[in-house]
């Protein structure tokens, strides 16, 4: 069975987006390097540094299932039915969309983080599951469902916004020392949760 990895690009003050869900300079590193890089969607190229490409090569190909919240699903329109990474997306929501124009896309709508992790792990098998940062990360961490944290630190202080761990209230969680990869306008910090 693979690992559950909570991942996001985060500001120095811990935010994954501003209060209007904008990412602004958090995503600068996706477009400022010489290496053309793709996730699952072959029509969406990133241009990143070699160090970031090497780091993503060590993580993204091992992710088969992704878990996102309804907010991200709505903001991105479910990436028009193509997962950003992996081959299946589990969307945590109490109200699945009724008019989404991609009904055959590999998206499953589930009620609750525990159900999402169970289904995503079953789908992924020996591959990994990615949870996008925000309230879902806090919920999964509080439930003891997170094995690793991929904290992609952007050199910006947003001042306010959506927190990487949402409104996390739970036990203290200890992490191993991080694997550190310095990219261009991002520092990749990859932690394993100590059990």
From TrEMBL:
Q: Give residue ranges for domain Bacterial bifunctional deaminase-reductase C-terminal.
A: 113-182
Q: Which SUPFAM superfamilies match?
A: Dihydrofolate reductase-like
Q: What domain of life is recorded for the organism?
A: Bacteria
Q: Which InterPro entries match?
A: DHFR-like_dom_sf, RibDG_C
Gene Ontology molecular function: any one = 5-amino-6-(5-phosphoribosylamino)uracil reductase activity
GO terms in the biological process aspect are: riboflavin biosynthetic process
Q: What is this protein called?
A: Dihydrofolate reductase
